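User: Some background: our group keeps a shared notebook of sequences we're curious about, and every so often someone picks one and asks for a predicted structure to add to the entry. Today it's my turn. The entry only has the sequence so far, pasted here. Could you supply the structure so I can complete it?
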Amino acid sequence: MEQYATSGVLCVARSKQAAAAACKLFAERKVTKEYLALLDGHVPFPNASDVVRDSDDERPKKRPKITGIKSPSGHFEVAKRAAQKASMRGEKLTSEQEMLLSMRWKDVKRNKKMHQVYVDLNAADIAAWKSNNGIQAKKQPQKFRSITTLSLDGGKRPVYRIYGGLANTRGFRMQFATPESPGRPCETEMEVLEHGYVGEKNRRPASRVILRPKSGRRHQLRLHSLGMGHPIIGDATYNVRDNGDEESGDKEEDAMPRMMLHAWNLILPFQDKTRTARAPDPFKDLFIT
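Assistant: Of course. Here's the predicted structure to add to the notebook entry:
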């Protein structure tokens, strides 16, 4: 979520029914959200020859459906039912089966040795499921890649598609996902519009871009831009040129009064009618081409 310090379109429901319908669209990721942003430096225009094809795409894959895994208590219930059926058939029971007939799960939890047996069975189920589905023990850090996609104007233009997981920290800031803190996967599309400058005295190289978040993680656009090596201008949290860092010698001349991130376009495809809201570009007088 990027609402704090961001200008532009704000979606407010005027009734419970409208709120429910809008929430459903957001939950199903059917809403198109476009942000205008000014980024530090000149982001290279992606070339069609450099595009990563779908076969090489390293976007995060959906986790396979979990099947065939029983909890420790589930394994206990299976063993107990087997003992009950054996008893009904008149078979000779083992001492362990005789114990199971009179026990409940809370009794098993008090018996450390017996409890560990069912915990190990559950761990074996999980290991087998991971092995069958090719899941590694540790999540690998996600990479930034670009692929060709269709832009909204209908023309086939190369854009950056950024895949980078984000994880919470103990404070306000977010961080990139690591094997130790895998966080949650997220995706952003970046379309480079033009190169230029901002600032009257000391011209600061800048890129005007459209950011299209495909997920809604906190600080997603700000960190994905930073991960590309071009943080959002005026971002006092993640851009060292604007956050008052003592090592930034040009801070007073280069620093911007606000974060250059603007909720520009919002498209909600309701069943009866598609509604579009667009806010004017506030950066047109700041951006020098």
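Suggested note for the entry: Residues 112-132 form the longest helix (21 residues). The longest strand covers residues 187-198.
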